[in-house]
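A reminder before we start the practical. When you read a complex entry, don't treat the lines as separate problems. The point of joint prediction is that each chain is placed relative to the others, so the output describes one connected object in space. Small molecules and nucleic acid strands, if listed, are placed in the same frame. In the example below there are two entries. Take a minute to note the order of the lines before looking further.
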Amino acid sequence: MNDTINIVIAGIGGQGVIKASDILSEAAFTAGYDVKKSEIHGMSQRGGSVTSDVRFAKKVFSPTVPPGEADFLVVLADDQVEINCHLLKKGGKLITSKDIDLSKIPNPKTLNTALLGALSSFIGIPLKNWEEAIRKLLPPKSTDMNIEAFNMGRKQ
Amino acid sequence: MTNKFLLSGNEAVAEASLDAGVSLGTGYPGTPSTEILEHFAEIGGKAQWSPNEKVALEVGVGAAYGKARAIVTMKHVGLNVAADPFFTAAYTGVDGGLVIVSADDPGMSSSQNEQDNRHLAEAAEIPMLEPSDSQEAYDFTVKGFELSEKWKIPVLLRMTTRICHSKTIVEKKIRPSKGYSNLKFVKDLRGKVMIPSNARPAHLRLREKIAELAEFNEESFFNKVEKGLIDTGIITSGISYQYAKEAEPDAGILKLGMTYPLPFDKIRSFAGKYKRCIVIEEGDPYLFKSIMAAGIEVEGKHDIFRLGELNLKRVRKILAGENTSEEIPPCGKAPQLCPGCPHKTVYEALKKLGCTVPGDIGCYSLGTLPPYEAMDTLLCMGAGITVGLGLRHILPEEKAMKVVSVIGDSTFIHSGITGLVDMVYNRPPTGHVVIILDNNTTAMTGLQEHPGSGRDIMHNPSHQVKIEDISRAIGIENVDVVDMLKNPEEIEKIITKRLSEKKTSVIIARRPCVLSVKLKAKI
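Here is the predicted structure of the whole assembly.
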């Protein structure tokens, strides 16, 4: 099971954590991987802490990433780094807003797709699958803006 | 075209219901079950939110008496509300297909308890299926209807938070059904009218069905044996299978998909093959106790693993026979009442007035957290009003007159109305004050409509049940409606006034939820 890629996306309700994990899982799914994604619903609209786990590989069993075994931790809110960093494995990669140039993203609401862009350069999902996932899961009027944010994040 | 989809367990149940030709879906919203009925409605199924789970199940039973296929969805505690029809529907059975979904919440991510509803299947003698991912959620729903029709019995599809909300790949293997045309009610007094003289033979028939189902389950599609490479066998079900498979990939596994009635011969034969046979299950030791009671020697888990969800780490510990205290993860930011939420002003007033506040279940439960800490009890749906009545009856007058019950609009419709009836019928000496926090939606579960909102599951107009009209019709002496958008400052004055009178009072604090206003702008 060592080939499983374990990713946790974290932030605050309303930031688009779940949307980001939806896009990531869809991209991994269309790229041909077995994918599982899990999070807790219910409180996500009330400004509380939110995390979403995504795992992909040839075959995945558990839908949740065990604490301390995440290969990547993507955090949308800077104040959520500390409480989530125990999820990351030793040598795992933390991705935060500091990894991108915030002044270049087209809209603060695209932080989630910009950080997915930053993540995308570390994992082997083809660009076209990312783009398709963004087009499928975001409203048409905001897709161009989000693809721009994604590409900006990817280049950093 | 590919027939594979990435679906949550809830979406998978909805898709299966549509493909299986379900005529009617009913339910009451509750995390983690809500998205089943929502998705079923979105993809074109006939679905409706019921006022509560008891109503939902009874309507579903009626549809299944008429030879239709019906699905009824609720969270685990909802099945308590629906327990009355649940137990006796096992006796009457159904002529069509009836699948009841109980979405349990081990770990209580969004619930007041973590009861394990597998006990309810056994107690009611209703066959139970437990999917372990979205594929099985899809397959077991389809097969659940077949099972229900073949044995003329309701089937419980028992899911848990991780099955409901995890997305996994689903391959659809059946061709969508065009629905059922032969819908009719066949008169059968002895079978359908549960007076004692009919219910006694009905119970005997139920025992016979269960015995047949147990035999069927010995070789059923629902249970799978995976041969291992080591001398450890694992008996498991539901999400626990995924953790067990990952924690000990070399072990032999008996994955039970139909967990009532259990296939004891299959279990005995499996357990006999291994030097060590251990049961890995989330929640109560339901499988462990049942298997041991059948005289099959297996190993269980330490009692600490009965609490909360399982995960890969905990299952590794169970397999290693450890029961060491567990790491407590750092506490995240707690959810809060949204900026602009009308409930805030009410809690500020209640705090200022030093009230004792029996509360209820919804967004406004957050009023128990800082900075308000103004909601004093939360028991179950509807209990805000009735716990308040109990306090009003026994407290000394001065203290009793500080008791104010709070309840939301959807919760009021769900099970607050009978409390209001008790309030006028068994009137406490000091009367009582109830505040209905009316934000015109079922907010906490994600903005579902309800009879008080006046819109149906797809947000289209429907008949609106007016809370003030109900309150007046019941005979409440003072019914005030406060517009929390225009006159929020009124609320403190009116609470103060009503608390000083020994009357029965309902104060409706009304303002649409800020999130629902955003949602409506989108539709």
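Discuss with your neighbour: The mean pLDDT of chain A is 92. What might explain this?
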